[in-house]
Amino acid sequence: MKFKSIIFISEILENKIPEKYLESLREFLLSGSIFTEASEFLAGMIIFILVTEIILVTISFILNLPSSILFLPFLIFPAIYTYVSVKHERNVAEIEQSAPDFLRQLSSMLQVGLSFENAMEDMSKYGKGPLYDEMRRTIIEIRMGRNFDEAWIAMSKRLKSRELERIFGIILDGRKSGSSMAGVIMDVSNDLRDLLAIKRERKSSVMMAVMFLIISAVIATPFALGMVSVYGGFMESFGQVTDIVAIAPIAGQMYLVIHSFLIGFIISIIMYGEVKKGIKFSIPLVVASVVIFYGVSNFGTSMLM
Rounded to whole angstroms, how far apart are CA atoms 277 and 66? Predict the structure, then answer.
């Protein structure tokens, strides 16, 4: 059941926002298994923020809370981004694990005389999981008139896995050149299995360094800087306020945000060998470290007493 307010706001957004941006958001949501129209999703977010802000303003006025709590509803955006990124990462991992068996089965069906399209259609009817969901979507696109090569390339790009995109490209090239598809698919299936084994070994070998960086960003640094803020509060209570004591908490917060943000990119380089995936680590690290910092700064004195 859809609320009239969501429908009304979504219609306004569809008229104001260019279609290409809505399409990009739709693809982003689908990558995280969120099957909601982009305009309706944005409308829901707007209503959520407005309602939450009204509630927080009322609570802040009654309980005399700091105005900084009004920033809390906007954390829904990094939270959703992190959720979609993690969900997509799990889907890609699941697809990569099931791909070798999928390709072996496809090769077997080709060996018994089925065409490539019929083999894909038969497999999509009974398989379960993200890979088979993408296969069913590709079959639907082909039935609606899209060229097979374009639909196959689009599916490989939607998976957002360099290994699978390369493998699917090899299969498509083999199909175009008239090669024995059963043999080609069996060979790339074996290569993919070996490649994924190497990838797992590499990931396990760097997890110790990744855990050290996460502990540093989320526990050690915010706790240490939070205690500096507590010490500054002690100095102010005794009337010994200096420029260093006054500026230390602010400088600590700035350093904490920068430190946690950069740690996310370092983790991305260690795990994936590229920087662009670091934002999905940086956002939760920054949020978690700032929350712990404020917790230690505001309640550290009571814990020590």
Answer: 34
Judge contact between 224 and 255, C-beta under 8 A: no
CA distances from 206 to 202, 212, 216, 269 (A): 7, 10, 16, 11
* Separation CA 174–CA 84 (nearest Å): 34
Q: Please provide the average confidence, as pLDDT, over all residues in the chain.
A: 80
What CA dihedral angle connects 112, 115, 120 and 123, to 10 degrees?
-30
Residues 80, 278: Cα–Cα separation, whole Å: 16
**DSSP of 44-80:** HHHHHHHHHHHHHHHHHHHHT--GGGGGGGGGHHHHH
Q: Please give the Cα distance from 90 to 65 (Å, whole number).
A: 39
> Can you tell me the distance from the alpha carbon of 132 to that of 98, in angstroms, rounded to the nearest whole number?
10
Instruction: Judge residue 263's burial from the number of C-beta atoms within 10 Å of its C-beta, 0-12 exposed, 13-18 middle, 19 or more buried.
Output: buried
Q: Which amino acid is at 30?
A: L
Q: Is 17 left (phi over 0), alpha (psi -120 to 50) or beta?
A: beta
29-85: per-residue pLDDT in tens? 877 777 788 888 888 888 888 999 899 888 888 877 767 677 778 888 878 888 888
Q: pTM for the complete prediction? A: 0.69
Contact 34, 86 (CB under 8 A): no
List, in order, residues 6 or more apart from 24 with CB less than 8 Å away: none
The rounded distance, in Å, linking the Cα atoms of 296 and 268 is: 28
User: How many other C-beta atoms lie within 10 A of the C-beta of residue 252?
Assistant: 21
Q: Which helix (H) or strand (E) holds 274?
A: none
Q: How far apart are CA 19 and CA 25, in angstroms?
A: 10
